[in-house]
Specification:
alpha/beta, 17-stranded mixed sheet, 3-stranded antiparallel sheet, 21 helices, about 35% helix, transport, repeat, transmembrane
């Protein structure tokens, strides 16, 4: 079109009345341009006929000059530039429509979304998840449909404006899935689906932060609407300016001899028709833009609800989304709502947990789990599982399991299949958040005997543990402040009618009321504090059946008087407190059943003589104190079998120690003892003797009298030689003799060989 002739002009005849000042020139021009009457053709000689027109005496260059001058000055600009305007407007429309596909901040999101969307649509896990939904009972489906119809009826009222913000709900397609195929998800496909869940999670977190896509789409749509209105306005007004004939008046008479010309715009007819067609096309496009603008502002496109998908699929935890994520889902709904439905599977934590469970079952087979079985401290066959993504279903195929230990496993779900573990008696939950199936709870109520819970947050305490009516031992480890210990959940411990042992390792400042509620049948209670001072111990008096009591690291300065009321008490452990004086120990004489007293790791400086009245004692621990002198009255407790005096400042052992004929364990490790009385070797039942890290220089040959001695620690003294009488201790082997190698070599060779023999 640029290379074609744009306009063709010819000189125009002017009437004499139009120019009186130059009549002679006009007359001359008229004379020179007035055509002569054509000669009549001769009928006898038609070949002699010659057609003649108006003579102008203009050459080709002058015509070209006239055409160019008239094109520039006489032709309307709209008629001249119409093709270029169409091209420019089209380029602007294309730029507005495609800019967000090229801008880095928006194109990356779109490309990533399309990539993830396609993978989610084609993922075998999507098919499996939806096939499980399709296998629901028809009654449940009917109920869901009724609920949907009721909710739609409510929303269709005058206040049902929420419909505008929801996703398209017309998804009539039902998935026809081969369940045998859907159930077959190999390990590789499971890992791919797991990675896809992570991608969706990260993509959602990133995209929901901003609304650049929505804002850009709105702006480019508004720009297109404004552009459309401008085009319609000026084109409608100027389309009439495209004329086939144009009058041209230019002052070029001195060059051509003419001033007025009549011109023909060669493209006028085509431009006129094209302009009307162009207006029609732009109008259609503009109406589409107006509808898009209406759609943008009428519906809340920055919020996307999966309500209908939740109702149809039964996956209730699919979250609603916002900002650019919601906008892209609204856009994909305009293409096919099925994409959003299949994409929603990867937004569900329930679906993700099912996938994790499937991958977990593939990874932890029954044979692999059996390799981890071990015997625990309670002599039960235990399976420890640490830092897994969940609880494998294959665990419940190990029917011989007696104890299950779970550590640092989030979102544990104990299914009904736990009932297959007929021998299960012990359950340990360390930093685990646990939910349980109702059938599984019924099984645990009947079978579970021991429960251990270690928690960082009170919310990790399983609420169902308070209903374990046959539970005998409960161990709680975690922060349990005084205020929290008074709340309602702990008070429900009273329902544990069979509870006999309760251990709380926490930071309580007084005995929780929940513990008092089970005091009537509680036999052993352990409170291990973190140094928090334990006060108000009067509630101990109510625990009349208590046989064992441990108050460890509770910052006690005196032995609590309430302890003296526990007539059934057999063992008392006051480790790691701040005891300095134990004069009130005399009150223990009323506790006729007390056999074990542990006052170790304190600041006790002396042992009062009243200890002689504790004639029932069999085990006594005073290690890690500041005792300097041992009273002879201590050895009047002639039933003592275990005596630990290690890590003190003792210098002398009274000869009265020989009275302890039942003594089997004696330790004075890390003291300042310089000699041992010969009476010590009268304790012929002694099996363990620890005298290391003292100032001893001679070991008496009478040690050969200890025929049952199996462990002897003499390391860290000043011995130069060991008595050969050690050979008489037939139970003593090299592994049970703790001594320097050089000192061991001082023994006769036959004694050494005897000890090394198995």
């Amino acid at each position: 079109m640029v290379m074609q002739d744009k306009i063709i002009c010819l000189p125009k005849r002017v009437q004499p009345s139009q120019n009186h000042s130059s009549i002679s020139n006009v007359s001359q021009a008229v004379a020179s341009t007035t055509p002569l009457p054509p000669p009549k053709p001769s009928p006898t000689n038609p070949a002699t006929v010659e057609m003649k027109g108006l003579k102008t005496d203009l050459d080709l260059q002058q015509y070209s000059f006239i055409n160019q001058m008239c094109y520039e000055r006489a032709l309307h600009w709209y008629a001249k530039y119409f093709p270029y305007l169409v091209l420019i407007h089209t380029l602007v429309f294309m730029l507005c429509s495609n800019f967000w596909f090229k801008f880095p901040g928006s194109s990356s999101k779109i490309e990533h979304f399309i990539s993830i969307l396609g993978k989610c649509f084609d993922s075998p896990w999507t098919t499996r998840a939806l096939s499980e939904v399709s296998g629901e009972d028809s009654e449940e489906k009917d109920n869901r449909k009724n609920n949907m119809s009721r909710s739609n009826t409510i929303q269709s009222g005058p206040e049902g404006s929420l419909v505008n913000a929801q996703s398209l709900k017309s998804i009539p397609e039902k998935f026809v899935v081969d369940k045998s195929t859907a159930g077959a998800l190999d390990k590789k496909e499971g890992e791919q689906a797991k990675a896809l869940f992570e991608k969706v999670k990260k993509f959602r977190l990133h995209v929901e932060e901003g609304d650049i896509l929505y804002a850009m789409y709105v702006r480019q749509t508004v720009l297109k609407v404004i552009k459309f209105l401008i085009i319609i306005a000026y084109n409608s007004a100027l389309v009439s300016k495209v004329q086939f004939t144009v009058d041209c008046n230019v002052d070029i008479q001195d060059m051509t001899g003419y001033k007025n010309f009549s011109c023909n715009h060669t493209m006028a007819h085509l431009f006129s028709k094209l302009s009307f067609c162009y207006l029609c096309f732009v109008s259609i496009y503009g109406l589409t833009c107006l509808y898009t603008l209406y759609w943008l502002f009428y519906r809340s496109l920055r919020e996307y609800s999966f309500e209908y998908v939740r109702q149809e699929t039964g996956i209730d935890d699919i979250p609603d989304v916002k900002n650019d994520f919601a906008f892209m889902l609204h856009m994909i709904d305009q293409y096919d709502p099925l994409y959003s439905k299949r994409f929603a599977v990867f937004l569900s934590e329930v679906s993700e947990n099912k996938l994790k469970q499937l991958n977990l079952n593939n990874e932890w087979t029954p044979d692999k789990l059996r390799q981890k079985l071990q015997t625990n401290a309670h002599n039960r066959l235990e399976l420890p599982l640490i830092m897994l993504s969940g609880l494998p279903d294959t665990v419940f195929e190990i029917t011989e399991l007696q104890s299950l230990k779970l550590e640092i496993i989030k979102n544990v779900m104990i299914p009904a299949t736990i009932a297959q573990l007929d021998n299960l008696q012990e359950l340990s939950l360390h930093q685990c958040s646990v939910k349980i199936h109702s059938a599984a709870l019924s099984f645990l109520k009947e079978n579970l005997k021991v429960l251990s819970v270690k928690f960082d947050d009170m919310r990790e305490l399983p609420p169902w543990m308070y209903g374990l009516r046959n539970l005998e031992e409960l161990y709680l480890v975690g922060s349990l402040s005084h205020d929290i210990s008074k709340n309602v959940t702990l008070e429900s411990l009273r329902d544990l009618k069979s509870l006999k042992i309760l251990s709380i390792k926490s930071n309580v400042s007084k005995i929780p009321q929940a513990v008092v509620d089970v005091s009537s049948h509680l036999q052993k209670m352990c409170i291990h504090n973190d140094g928090t001072k334990l006060v108000m111990l009067n509630n101990l008096k109510k625990m009349t059946n208590l046989t064992e009591l441990e108050l460890v690291h509770c910052d006690l300065e005196r032995i609590p008087h309430a302890v003296f009321s526990l007539l059934s008490l057999q063992e008392l452990d006051l480790k790691e407190n701040n005891l300095k004086s134990i004069e009130e120990i005399v009150s223990f004489q009323h506790l006729r059943k007390l056999t074990v007293l542990k006052l170790w790791h304190n600041s006790i400086t002396y042992i009062p003589e009243h200890i002689k009245k504790l004639t029932s004692l069999e085990r006594l621990a005073f290690s890690h104190n500041k005792i300097e002198v041992l009273p002879s009255h201590l050895f009047l407790c002639n039933k003592i079998r275990y005596l630990d005096l290690s890590y003190n400042d003792i210098r002398f052992i009274p000869p009265e120690i020989g009275v302890l004929q039942s003594l089997q364990y004696f330790s004075i490790t890390c003291n300042k003892v310089e000699s041992l009385p010969d009476e010590l070797y009268f304790c012929k039942k002694l099996k363990t003797l620890k005298i290391g890290k003292n100032s001893l220089s001679v070991l008496s040959p009478k040690i050969g009298n200890l025929l049952f001695l199996s462990y002897l620690d003499v390391k860290g003294n000043h011995f130069e030689i060991l008595p050969p009488e050690l050979g008489d201790c037939r139970a003593l082997k090299r592994a049970g003799l703790v001594v320097e190698d050089a000192l061991f070599e001082t023994l006769p060779s036959d004694v050494r060989e005897q000890m090394k023999a198995e």
